[in-house]
Amino acid sequence: MREILILGRGGQGAQTAGNLLARAFFEQGSFVQTFATYGGARRGTPVTASLRVDDQPIRQRSNIEHASAMLCFDESLLEPGFLGFARPDTVIVVNTHKPASAFAGLGDYQFFPIDGRSIAQRNDMGKVVNSALLGAFAAKLDQLDIDIVCNVIQDTAPAKKDQNVAACRDAYAMVRNQDAGGQQ
Amino acid sequence: MNLMNRKNMQLLSGNHAVSWAARLCRPDVAPLYPITPQTPILEKITEFHAEGLMKTELLTPESEHSAMAACISASLTGARVFTATSSQGLLLQHELLHYATGARAAIVMCNVNRTPASPWGFWPDQLDSLSQRDTGWVQFYSESPQESLDSVIMAFAIAESVGVPTMVCHDAFYVSHSMEPVEIPDQAMVDDFLPKFDPARKLDTAVGASFGAPLDQNTWRRSRMDLAESLAAVTDETIRVGEAWGKLTGRSYGPLERYRCDDAEMVIVTMGSMCGTVRDAVDTMRENGKRVGLLKVRQFRPLPASMLRDALAGVPVVMVLDRNYSPGTGGILHQELKAVLSGMADGPKVHGLLAGIGGANVSSETIDRWVRDYQNAEPKPESQWVE
Amino acid sequence: MNKPQSPLWTNSTSEARKTGTWRSALPDYQNIPSPCLGACPVDGEIATWLRQVTQIDHYGAWLTLMENNPFPAIAGRICHHPCQTACNRVQLDETVGICSLERFVGDKAITEGWSIPKPEVERTESIAIIGGGPAGLSAAYQLRRRGYQVTIYESREQLGGLLRYGIPAYRLDNSIVDAEVGRITDLGVKVHLGVEIMNSAALAKLKEDYSAVFLATGASRPKALPGLDYSQPYVQDSADFLAITNGGKTCELGENLLVIGGGSAAMDVARTARRLGRHVTVLTLESDENLPAQRTEVDEAREENVEFICGAMLKDVNSTKDGLILTCARVDFQPGAAKGQFTTTQIEGSEFELRVDAIIPAIGQDADLARWQDVVPGDKGLIDTDQSWRTQTEGIFAAGDVASMARFVTEAVGQAKHAAVAIARYVSPDEAKDPPPLLAEAKFNVINTAYHSPDARHNQENLKVEVRLQSFDEVQIALSAEQAIAEAGRCFSCGTCIDCDNCYLYCPDMAISKLEGGGYVVNLDFCKGCGLCVAECPTGSIHMQEDLPS
């Protein structure tokens, strides 16, 4: 079972990203379970979306204590409370314009920085970063078909469907390029 | 296992699964008042209604109390009635919950289990509905969105055949707001499963009969004996309906579920969403050679006393996980279970744990630790605070 | 399991329990007069016709109005509406705008061309009516519709009296007078215009020729202001001024006019003169708050830039080639016990001067009694009458301004209605019916206001002042049909059953049954006298009465 956490601030689209990711896995035929902070959630406060993915029915109904992958919408949220859910092998994708070395002081984690803002901007998405971050995150998650992710975005985006999809693919390609040793 | 093999699968939250169930059951009247975390149920129903996908008399009165008053009156006219609430809303309905049972109104309600104030909170805790245990409502506790959907449909069958109101409870957050794959049954199948509600007596201006006159002492007593007789039939009805539903869908349900209890040295007894986490914990412990099982109490009212005794006969140790704290008493399931098991020749030792009160997280690792802590301990009469 | 024999359900009834035996009081359905009815000079069934307006039964409303007053369109414009002063609703929010609704119904009747139903019987008895103003026409209408043969003698060239010659078009257009007077003559009333009954002999002759005579000549003689020379060209009495200007002629009196007097006639003169482009000052003995004109008239006059000098009197007039120089003085005005009574004391050293071109005194009018003094004596300026408007000469009746100081159009209409009943009793005693006894009025405390939500009055709007001063168009703009229905809906229907079914629904013993065609009846076997029906009656038309065992 894979356990995934997405952290953001209310209004950034972290919960939406969690739902989209869950739906993409679901469309691929996996069992999924997703839930997000509620009740006190409001614009600007830290919000968490949790996602479990498995090839058999998911029965656990509790908080995720150890994530195999994490997506962080805002580097200011990288603090011990959140990093406590990570293990040394946990993939942590961070929305930042800084290099990975900038986070070395936070501990022995695998940080993958992605400049979601600039990807969003060059795809006419302004400050709306969640599709770009989802593309980058998808590139780091095994066995997730980027075409299905893009179909889900195309289906559900309330506006700028094509730009959202383009930002997602752009970020996905960028991360895959980097991993292949290519230059942006 | 691949989900693609199942038809009519949708990714739904527990609340939206309940809305789907309500839609499939075609209630004639649905009085609803919003409250966190029940509101998505209402929202989805109003959406179905607005799109013409659900034909029902949708009432949005000024309070949960009025909503329940409308439920009772509508039900007495012979209408099929659905409503949903949570926490403070359910507590506000309290006096009418008694009335509904006495009136034999076959209402079906979904209650989303949420901490009652104060302090203020929105978290999973079953005290709201458990403290309605003396109102006579049939109570089911559901573990997952799929079970919530199935339970609402089965609840109509039970309520309408026995003539008592029925409540399907699911935990806030872990079920209400958790999105999971849910299979939506065919409408035609549900139509066959649930025949039109046609009670023997209904309020009708064309019929010269009335309801609700004050009764003398002996007649009042007789009405309670009738109620007791009906409630005594609920457990068999739950079994019958659960099996019938299982034949149609492959998902059977009963008043209780024994999970890997055979030869168990310890059985964990709990209700609602925690059952799933306990299943995982049980599987892990079994892999490690520990003989532990789960007894899921699905039907809490009427309490299936004989079935509980049968299920736990010969089990050396029982650990009850109560996601509720009745101030001054402790865990409600713990207390009820001790009473049921009292006097059994081979009755188990019973530990009561106040687990996950107020929605505090309970992981399978935690459960594993509690098993280790309590399997050899001497039980105390009081429920224990654990974390 | 919901057993058919469940004790929760019952087919039996509690009819065997005769709860009526517990009773010490019994509700009684009796419509009682609303305060507006009590205040109405013509005894209008206001609650009834307002209810008909809400039911969009305009014709029914008009017939109800016409029972007591043949001039709803006229009264709806000019009545001093004591009904509104008496309205119970003021204790919740604002009084009901009855007058504007009467106009609404009256106008509807004119637009629709409704006519008065013909008399059911024709009678041989004949009545002569002297004077074709509000009182004469009212009596003519009431007598003619009862089948009597009615002849009106009018000294002027047209019927209407004060309505036609004394009230300017911006308050009451002559087309309205034509319509409502025409309906009465269409009933078959004989009319002799330009005929004056000059003296006692002529009156005595009429008495011979007719079964009865009704005097309704009004108050046609202007009161004279002491010390003012009426023969001067710069003095014109208000009645003459209004008759000329209402006839469409203009005023020949110069630019700056002084109107003396604070009553309705003075306001009519002042506001007419403003419409003719004159500068107008009104001089009144009365202090501002004691002006006898209706308050809206004073307010609207001020809006139209009429200047007021209240609490002052004219002392001297000096005519120069540049106009009049008037010497005036302030007075201390003290109202007396009765209407029209007062005392004034000149304040020493308060003299001041006014410069105007002409003076129009409008200080009231007296009845002309001297010509008939031998037949119908009177003093204090009025013909002597009793409560039934009988003069001292048998067969001669008098009402309106000639016999009363009430001096309002609708007072005259109401008096003439009562006089007509008395005349009918006199000429055909067999037909006489005693009027029903008067009941106590429905007070505010019998109204259950839980059934009446606060709601502001729907008022008639006024034309803008700039528009008003350009023409004689009516100042008040009639209510729309929607406004009228909403406004009529504000009526409490004090004392009048509105078939709301509250008593029927609330009776805990189901002791009240509905009658076919409306109304309710109490089943004495079951009414235990709890009074819930009375408490829940929104209109106060049910009353508890002591019910002693017989």
Secondary-structure map:
The complex is a heterotrimer of chains A (184), B (387) and C (550).
Chain A: E1 2-9, H1 14-27, E2 31-36, E3 46-54, E4 67-72, H2 80-83, E5 86-95, E6 110-114, H3 116-122, H4 130-140, H5 146-156, H6 161-179
Parallel strand pairs in A: 1-4, 4-5, 5-6
Antiparallel strand pairs in A: 1-3, 2-3
Chain B: E1 9-13, H1 14-25, E2 29-31, H2 39-50, E3 57-59, H3 64-76, E4 82-86, H4 87-92, H5 94-102, E5 108-113, H6 127-130, E6 138-142, H7 145-162, E7 166-171, E8 179-183, H8 187-193, E9 210-211, H9 217-232, H10 234-249, E10 256-259, E11 266-270, H11 274-287, E12 292-297, E13 299-301, H12 305-312, E14 317-322, H13 332-341, E15 349-354, H14 364-374, E16 384-385
Parallel strand pairs in B: 2-3, 4-5, 5-7, 6-7, 11-12, 11-14, 14-15, 15-16
Antiparallel strand pairs in B: 1-8, 6-13, 10-12
Helix pairs in contact in B: 1-2, 1-7, 3-5, 7-10, 11-14
Chain C: E1 9-10, E2 25-29, H1 35-39, H2 46-54, H3 58-68, H4 72-78, H5 82-86, H6 98-112, E3 126-130, H7 134-144, E4 149-154, H8 162-165, H9 174-185, E5 190-193, H10 200-209, E6 212-215, E7 221-222, H11 238-246, E8 256-260, H12 264-275, E9 279-284, H13 295-303, E10 307-310, E11 312-320, E12 323-335, E13 342-346, E14 352-356, E15 358-361, E16 365-366, E17 378-379, E18 382-383, E19 396-398, H14 409-427, E20 461-462, H15 465-468, E21 476-477, H16 481-488, H17 502-506, E22 512-514, E23 520-522, H18 532-535, E24 542-546
Parallel strand pairs in C: 3-4, 3-6, 4-5, 6-19, 8-9, 8-15, 9-10
Antiparallel strand pairs in C: 2-24, 7-16, 11-12, 12-13, 12-14, 17-18, 20-21, 22-23
Helix pairs in contact in C: 2-3, 2-16, 3-6, 4-6, 6-16, 7-14, 11-12
Provide a concise account of the structure shown:
The complex is a heterotrimer of chains A (184), B (387) and C (550). By secondary structure, chain A is α/β, with parallel strands linked by helices.
